[in-house]
Design a protein that fits this description.
159 residues; elongated; 5 strands; alpha+beta; single chain
């Protein structure tokens, strides 16, 4: 049902107003586009070797990730499912869409979900980050106690 036909006097009076409003919206959008583009250019690109250190969680583990689909992957050549909210971060710490890295093998730090064992978060490592030992690795664990006497100690052993 069309109540306001173009031949109606009110419709003819409203038509120029609608055209001017549409032109004003188009002009505002055209003026805002360079501002949005310049705001994106103000954010600097951070290369992976710029010395920006990322802090990984204590529970993070290290492995080699091969994304086989958006729902499945291989982690150290073992199949693993992706959690529904799985996040993959690039060396610049930006989000990476999983479909863009299908078939690529990459060195990552990762977290798995405790209850399901699904891959929850992974960080693609830069060359510098991959060379550093992961915090909490067994080979870097320091203890503040010893078993047995000191090897160079001349004191008698306690019984």
């Amino acid at each position: 049902m069309n109540r306001c036909l173009p031949s109606h006097p009110f419709a003819r009076a409203r038509l120029p107003l609608l055209l001017w409003a549409g032109l004003a919206c188009a002009a505002a959008a055209a003026a805002a586009a360079p501002l949005a583009a310049s705001a994106q250019q103000l954010q600097p690109y951070i290369p992976p070797s710029a010395g920006v250190a990322r802090n990984f969680p204590e529970a993070a583990k290290r492995g080699t990730l091969l994304v086989t689909s958006t729902a499945e992957a291989q982690l150290d050549d073992q199949p693993i499912r992706m959690a529904p909210g799985m996040r993959l971060f690039s060396p610049q710490n930006t989000l990476v869409f999983l479909h863009t890295v299908i078939g690529q093998r990459m060195r990552v730090n990762y977290l798995t979900e405790a209850s399901t064992g699904m891959l929850l978060t992974a960080w693609i490592l830069s060359e510098g980050e991959a060379a550093q030992p992961l915090r909490g690795d067994a080979d870097t664990l320091e203890r503040n106690f010893r078993f047995g006497p000191e090897p160079d100690s001349n004191a008698p052993a306690l019984r």
